[in-house]
Design goal:
With 206 residues, the protein is mainly alpha-helical. Helix content is 64%, strand content 0%. The longest helix is centred in the last third of the chain and has 29 residues. Pfam families: TetR_C_11, TetR_N.
């Protein structure tokens, strides 16, 4: 849910056109309305500024002061579902991988978030620029964090020297994605990240 653990618009680094001072209450209402409509089954194609404004209880001009078009708003709304990356202790590759994957588990564990992301990603082919911007802002930092830990593990000898870094990232993140999309409804198991990491390390450790 948009709130304590989610990224704020300021944290996502989204650009804003110049204008009158922002109302955080109005901005939150608009973001929540966008996510609510998506979670209720409205696809990006059917989503309209009019529908968002009506659900948020604001005028369309209030939205257009903050976002120049629907795609900009959707990118910002989806980005709020991604929590900030956790601090890494750096004591072991295993511990750091578990921390990163557990952050993914917590993000995906919210049923509303999972529903929103599934609906939004189902239309990715129709909105390639939207997907590209979302991946660059919210997904790529997580991929890079995984790459950094894996590369550190190769350098320290904790992981195989011949390990394909990109494949390692795909194995770890792909397992989490599978569970979030196809796993049982409800919260993901609290030990899921640890189990995924240990299963992967059995194949990629020296």
């Amino acid at each position: 849910m948009y709130g304590e653990t989610a990224m704020t618009i300021q944290e996502t680094g989204a650009a804003r056109p110049a204008g009158r001072p922002r109302s955080e209450k109005a901005e939150k209402a608009i973001i929540d309305a966008t996510l609510d409509l998506l979670s209720e089954g409205m696809g990006i194609s059917d989503l309209s500024i009019e529908a968002i404004a009506s659900k948020a209880g604001v005028g369309k001009t209030t939205i257009y002061r903050r976002w120049s078009n629907k795609e900009d708003l959707v990118v910002d709304a989806l980005s709020t579902l991604k929590a900030p990356l956790p601090p890494l202790a750096g004591t072991s590759v295993r511990d750091d991988l578990i921390s990163l994957l557990d952050a993914m588990r917590q993000e995906a564990g919210n049923q509303r978030n999972r529903c929103v992301m599934n609906i939004a990603m189902s239309e990715a082919d129709r909105y390639p620029q939207l997907l590209e911007r979302f991946v660059k802002r919210a997904v790529e930092p997580r991929r890079q964090a995984l790459r950094d830990v894996i590369e550190r593990g190769i350098a320290s000898g904790e992981l195989r020297a011949d390990l394909d870094v990109g494949m390692g990232v795909a194995i770890l993140s792909g397992a989490m994605l599978w569970h979030s999309k196809w796993g049982p409804a409800g919260d993901l198991p609290a030990d899921l990240a640890e189990r995924v990491v240990d299963a992967a390390l059995a194949g990629i450790a020296p």
